[in-house]
Amino acid sequence: MYDINEQTSRDHLLDANLEERTRQAFAKHLRQFVFGTTRGVAQQAFAQRVAPELARKDPAAARDRKRAREALLQVPEYQFFCDLHRISQEQIWNSTADSVERDADRLRAEFLALRNPKGSLQLNPELQIPEYLLAMDTHCMPGSYHTDWAENDLSNGALYERGSFLYTPSGGPANDGAGRASLDFLRTKLPDFVPRRMLDLGCATCSPLFPYARAFPETEIHAVDSGAPVLRYAHLHAEKEGIALHLRQADAAATGYEDGMFDLVTAHIMFHETESYAIPQILAEAYRVLAPGGVLLIVDLPNAGLIPDVFQQIVFDGDAYYNNEHFWMRMHDLDWAAELRKVGFPAESIEIGAAPMQMYIAPSAEHPEPRWNKGRFGFFAVMARKAAAGSAK
Ligand SMILES: C[S@@+](CC[C@H](N)C(=O)[O-])C[C@H]1O[C@@H](n2cnc3c(N)ncnc32)[C@H](O)[C@@H]1O
Prior knowledge:
- The protein is α/β, with parallel strands linked by helices and 393 residues long.
- It has 2 domains: 113 residues; 226 residues, 3-Layer(aba) Sandwich (Rossmann fold).
- It is 46% helix and 16% strand.
- An 8-stranded mixed beta sheet has the order 1-4-3-2-5-6-8-7.
- Helix 3 packs across helix 11 and helix 4 runs antiparallel to helix 6.
- The radius of gyration is 21 Å and the shape is globular.
């Protein structure tokens, strides 16, 4: 665990004062308590009472996460955990929103003062935000990724950047754990691969792209998201770091880029927030904009189908019920290989597995530099490659 002051506010653009940081630290620790101790108590109740009784009465139900959850719902320890899951998540946003509101004008002024950017920002006020993103505040974040509370607003970029830092246990102060994990996965699978041009889908504040920009300094990096405030925030952040990101407000299912423009298309933790009907559309778009031989890499939250522990699967599904993450649950059940084949990726190019999570270890007296370890858990990782030019598909 690390102190929240490690994400120094100015480094990450949002300026939180001492009182706000104290409340944010409380929210972070409350969430860790809920997902540590309280979850552990519910797990014990499942293992000692619920699972054995189910196994006796109906062994198939004991292995089925949806039916096992029905039984677990009757158990007070699990009810308590679920209540606290929701409350602790709301605390994250409540404690962060004050900093965001107080700092919004300064952020906007810095954004408007940017001159001679290395990258670019193309906003489209006419864009129809996908209705599944409008339907709710994703993971209880007020206003989600798209709401502008004022003109040229960056607030929800700041809110997401700080809030996700508070509730993601080991993504590191720069929120770039997912980017580090996907880059590590890519380099393990394709050590010599260097994209000339890459596109990231559902980029939000672009945290995963900073490791890519450092690893591939010659690569032209493009990214799309449907939300304007997250893109403004990403633009300001990238320019302050001297990194060229070309950002476009677009639907990932219709990006507007030319056919075959990219050697690499990535999506970091986007698909678990995407309604089922849109997934094939986005995969088809990724295939279209990939050059022959180009690589698609999807890195997302762990997939229940790849984790044998039924209680853990139930906990993942809990995000759909208590944290406005309705689509994550459906993502578990999708046949990714079939969807990728349907849009044109050759079957033999498709790989489905896990990208080990990179766990941030804060500096200490013994190790004054921050370190990263490969964790026990893996992100869900899907890789596919478009057939090379001239090869039979
Ligand atoms: C959980 S955030 C992930 C952000 C970023 N990739 C990261 O790893 O921090 C998911 C993002 O996907 C975006 N998104 C979801 N569906 C989209 C679509 N159809 N078109 C564009 N963006 C989309 C949302 O607006 C949101 O910013």
